[in-house]
Structure prediction request, 399 residues.
Amino acid sequence: MFEHLTALPPDPILRLLAEQRQDNNPQKIDLGVGVYKDAQGATPIMQAVDRAERILLETENTKTYVAPAGNAGFNSSMAKLLMGSDNPVLESGRLTVAQTPGGCGALRMAAEFLNLCKPGNKVWLSDPSWANHHPLLNSAGLETVEYPYYDYENCGIRFDAMMDKLESEAKAGDIVLLHGCCHNPSGADLNQEQWQQVTELCLRKGLLPFIDIAYQGLGDGLDEDAYGVRLMAEKMPELVITASCSKNFGLYRERTGAVMLLSANADQAAVAASRLFSIIRGCYSMPPSHGASVVDLILASDELTTVWQDELAAMRQRIHFLRGAVVDKFVASGIDRDFGFIQQQSGMFSFLGINPAQVHQLKKDFSIYMVDSSRINIAGLSENNIDYFVNSVTQVLKA
Prediction:
């Protein structure tokens, strides 16, 4: 039976990772893979995570199964982190939370749930969106279509075009996927006024917002980055949220995430929960325990929460510093091109704004790796390589 299969091309980011690992150039720079890196180019274990893991090692007394919903303490803490600890939604009975295997698991379980509600339903994605959004949603049976989002020429949001598209073509019951903060891949985020306008549009047209938030705390702050989530939780009768702990807790390989469903009332929430947990049971039965237990320990401890928030603030400040530094370096290079947009954007990613041929030249001549779209991971830069990066880009642009 297997002989009838044909091979698929490798994932471009994973292929890029393999290529740079084989590159022996000591000055090589990996700006493709979306992981946070420190000044030494490492993705370290956060101190709060390390301390929580040591506590867990000493105190964990069983390896028995968890429930399909996962770690109850983790679910409660994640809801408070996203919604705010005093949000009345938390006590309303309307919110269903399930721990998932990473943000991808959350997205897929949300997609399976939404396809159960309305098979083949339409999901509006930003153009561009995170590349894995399409396969995660399509493979559950949902249809993905796009609304305008990023303006490649002016390096901002095509907000009027976005609103016009959703106003004219989105139908009641359609789903609109929004990035909670630190838009991947563009780094261009909705501001508070724009979140308010999108919320009003969704309410008026009967659209279901679906917020994917994978970088809370890496943009402007934990509370600031959750503005859109909290606004929509306050205003919308129904809301879907998926969250990841990979970036802000550094738990990439532990695959720790959460899916949240906000229903119109407690009775509907009970039905939604039964359906969601049944879907989980049929897909992977129950989530892994370790990463969620670590997050639960951190957020249940005032001391560890403070350590974690301080570390997260340092990561956020470093990204802000790098954005400003790379812009200053380009200005100092004398190149006739404005990269100021990089400093105005948020989170780990931005489009450099060069063409695929120039991307390939940077890889070939300078061992600088990024995907063809020119999306770069700002955290892949450091004080040690930023001059080399700017000089290399400048040479390619002047060629």
